[in-house]
Sequence to fold (604 residues):
Amino acid sequence: METESEPYVRLASLRQLHRVVAQLNTARSLADTLQTVADGVVEGLGFEISAVNLVRADGDLVVAAVAGSAAAEAMMAGRVGSRASWERRLSMGEQWGELHFIPYTEGWVLDDDDVPQWHAPSPVREIPDAWHPMDRLFAPLYASDRELLGVLSVDRPRNGRRPGAWGCEALQMYASQAAIAISNARLRSNMQRALVRLEREQQALRASEESFRQAFEYAPSGMAVAEMGGDQHGRLLRINDALCRLLGRPAAAMRRYSFSDLVHPEDIRTLLRTSAEGGRAELRLARRDGSYVWVSLRNSVVADTADGPRYLLTHVEDIEERKRHELQLAHRASHDSLTGLPNSAELRARLSSRLCARPDRPVAPAGAVPGVGPSGGYAGGGYGHGDGFWDVEGLGERGGISGAGTEPGTGLATPPGGGEQNTGAYGPVPVSGDPTGSPGSTGFGGYGGYGGDGGADPHHVHTVPPKGDGPGEKGLAVLFCDLDGFKSINDRYGHHCGDAVLIEVARRLEAGVRDDDTVARLGGDEFVVLADGLGPAEAQDLAVRLRNAIIPPIQVDGRAVRVGASFGIGWAGCGMTAEEVLQSADQRMYVEKRSRSKGQRRAG
Fold:
């Protein structure tokens, strides 16, 4: 072949170069591509040994492929050389275009560095430009942006000579094509890894969604997903079977509602104040049959994707049984155990909730009973007889119930209106001056939650005593009742009989008032009736009816016993405390009781 003309040799070499370059694009993976690059040097470029040193993520170079010598492959494959050592090599020796040649006369300083290398002992041929066993030739592999991808190292030309101009040109061309093939293979490898990772993530997402679906659908307690924001804010999108069973509604029907459509009217403010993230509330939701069930709501915000729409996930727990026990305990704490009537604490709480402290409240003289005149009559004059009494017992003269008057009107403090807006998960809600949103109390005898600070609740309606007996003069009447002759029944027949009498009296009092009136037992044989919207004459008539209802005999263990009753009427008004109102009515009752003889008072 050496005797042939040089153009023929170049044509044959070009064919070989074309063949090995074409093979570069047939590899299916990065590892196959690297090995194909190394094999192409041995098969098509006339070198006996080649190695591909690939740049790692940390910058160092690893021997990724070796061709031409099993011993060299065993010695170098997988070993790593530092980036600094490689940069030193690429800066030494002679630069042949893009190639770097380090003759053995200079390369001896590299024998002890950390770059993997292998040299086979072989004789040096006595020819011009002979290749020495310690010569080194490197072809850097650059990406299109001149990023170093690796270094192709070659050794032992088959003709024993250093490559000439055509050989160097062929090696540079091959290195350029090899860099492109490696870049494409790396891109394909990254894409394949990304696809595998994406598939795994999708599988994990599908598994997570399935786990959520099963946890959502088969949860023992109710769960719902609602929209957040937009025109359909709060509308229910998904509802599990437990919530459908709890509310007695099918899922298709539930998707037409939001929780604000189902909540009890008294609990709507509680719902609107519930925050979206981590919000909790206890309220009542409507069942299909029209009844309500107590539930506990717990909210959390979930996103469909990283930047996708957000949804409100609500956990709904049935707390009907717990609420029933709580209400029973609250009822026991606020009601008399014998008669079932509201007790003294509940009476004072209800009365306080109707009162507020007016800034211009008059100051009573020292030692005076608020609202009671010097002669025992209510300040402002009595109704009926001029001395403050009227006849009720048998409709006789001066018997029965003490007269009632009115407190002088002194003007009312105007409560401030408006308030902040507090945005919750289900919409904005105005916040009143009371942060709890419910009427508070300052203790028995103190002002109610509406007025301890002068009337801060904008929804409070002032309670004003009637100033006369005209058609429009109405107020909150407080009727204080004390039984006459009850002690003698207790002493004569025992406490069992006395308890039966108290139970029957309570029943008769409740039967004689309206549904929205309050009948309470203060203790012992004392009862109080709160009746709103009455005028003075109507209050007198109510007292007469109640006393006449109490007088008839009461059957206890086969015997008939009788008790009488003395009533005092007071009027509640803002500017008074609950204790002052009760003291006023109590004082009136004792004035009436003392006005009659013991015989007149005794009824059984």
Observations:
- The radius of gyration is 51 Å.
- DSSP finds 17 helices and 20 strands in the chain.
- The longest strand covers residues 292-303.
